[in-house]
Amino acid sequence: MANVIYALCALTSATCLALLWRSYRASRARLLFWSAWCFLLLTVNNVLLVLDKVVFPVEVDLRLWRLGTALAAVLLLVYGLVNEED
After folding, report:
1. pLDDT grade, residue 29 (50/70/90)?
2. What is the rounded distance in angstroms from the CA atom of residue 32 to the CA atom of residue 20?
């Protein structure tokens, strides 16, 4: 059951990325740009989670890569929020 939830989280992040990127292209709002980049990294984070827990549960430890992508995603979003000029 956990495998399905991990995959659905990755799919949800990818869907949010697609919707944010589409909205950014339509409106050119900078906050949507940074949010899309954040969700790109969160999608990578969720894919790494699937790889870490489902595909390679014992052989490979991707914890540091997952934490690094999550940190980078949050930092991108904070940067976008701080530098928003509207």
Report:
1. very high
2. 6
Q: CB-side exposure of 26: number of CA atoms within 13 Å?
A: 6
Cβ 36 vs Cβ 20: under 8 Å = yes
Q: For residues 17 and 39, is the Cβ–Cβ distance under 8 A?
A: yes
- 8 Å CB contact between 34 and 8: no
Q: What is the tens place of the pLDDT at every residue in 37-68? A: 999 999 999 999 999 998 888 888 899 999 99
* DSSP structure string for 17-48: HHHHHHHHHHH--HHHHHHHHHHHHHHHHHHH
pTM of the model: 0.90
